[in-house]
Amino acid sequence: MPLVPMQEILKDAKEKGYAVGSFNSIDLQMARGVIEAAEAERAPVILCHAEVHFKYTPMEKAANILLHEASSAKVPVAVLLDHGKSFESAIKAMYAGFQAVMIDGSQFPYEENVRLTSELVKVAHTLGAAVEGELGRVARPRSGGAEGQEDDAVIRDTSLYTEPEMAADFAERTEIDALACSFGTVHGVYLEKPKLDLKRLNRIAELTGLPIVMHGGSGLSQEDFSDSIKNGVCKINYYTNMALATAEYVKTKLLSQERAFYHDISQWSIDAIREDTISAIRMFGSSGRA
Ligand SMILES: [Zn+2]
Q1: pTM of this prediction?
Q2: Labelling 11: which of 34, 236, 261, 263 has CA 20 to 30 A away?
Q3: Alpha carbon of 233 to ligand 1 centroid (Å)
Q4: CA of 185 to the centre of ligand 1 (A)
């Protein structure tokens, strides 16, 4: 039961009321750590690679790694391009083997986002691939700790939040398979405690009928996750916490030994990714769902 379409994974999550983790995996170690965690927890997972990380691992190389790891997994795994910046990169990703693509048109004016996203959906659906769109903006506050384009936005700038009625129109006109929306989370590290607008989230899920995607999942509480899942979130993007925790673990291990080899670093990385991913999977309620 290895590589499966993201639509299938999200359908099960929506029906049964849990969320699937989408874990950014920039190399083989990360992908292996995530798959080991998913197999240990018998959980479906999404392996993803973000365009902002192409500088570390180009798309085609990442596609080979992620598809290979997904194909040999003992649990359902979908492989997704995360935060595709353009129509062209989303097409290239599907050509490279990604069977799900996220197109982030949220920085464009509404009509431009609709046009870009719906054009991509036409091509993707012809190829049997899924599309995740974004409406409203999940900010990336300055000094937020995760790389990428930083925003001047502050966490509680509600003008960036997704409008439910607009989301319904967006879903209908684009025919996307999943919707990333903004209701109080941010990318990177939280500099203040987030306050989620669950009413808004619930209304968006109800009006669109779509699996809702939470971006900025690092640093939220169990209660935040559970409440979000109850109100429509079926997929949670998770990276920052895992990346920081793994680097911290490797640093501690290195400092504690007189001599280490590169292969030690590689193995420590896999171990740390696996442990952090296991705790995320448990918080998302996806353990035992595979
Ligand atoms: Zn994101």
Answers
A1: 0.93
A2: 34
A3: 14
A4: 10
